[in-house]
Write a structure and sequence with these properties.
Number of strands: 2
Strand content: 5-15%
Radius of gyration: 15 Å
Number of domains: 1
Helix content: 40-55%
Distance between the termini: 56 Å
CATH topology: Multidrug-efflux Transporter Regulator, Chain: A, Domain 2
Length: 96
């Protein structure tokens, strides 16, 4: 199997060891808020052992691997949909 060509933002960061959560979200096509769901579901892990409230950096190799693997990307999309459903359900006011 041939790897997809590296274009766009990913090509800018390919030489770097890490990318920020915002850039990783842009590369993967998700929103910034969705990165927390991917970390919680262990589909993408931050570099090092960051605190919960600290800035997280991700390996550019891991981001590229997730972007290039359709099955893992599908799992990530499903996890984000599930997380958004739970969030919407929790925010919904009770019916009277």
């Amino acid at each position: 199997m041939v790897d997809p060509p590296i274009t766009g933002k990913l090509s800018l960061f390919w030489g770097w060891n890490c990318v920020s959560a915002t850039d990783a979200a842009d590369i993967l096509g998700f929103h910034d808020d969705d990165m927390a769901i991917l970390v919680r579901e262990k589909l993408l892990s931050p570099l090092g052992n960051p605190l919960n409230n600290s800035v997280k950096c991700f390996s550019s190799v891991d981001v590229a691997a997730l972007r290039g693997n359709v099955e893992r990307l599908s799992m990530a999309t499903e996890a984000i949909c599930q997380g958004n459903r739970r969030k919407t359900k929790a925010e919904k006011p009770p019916r009277l």
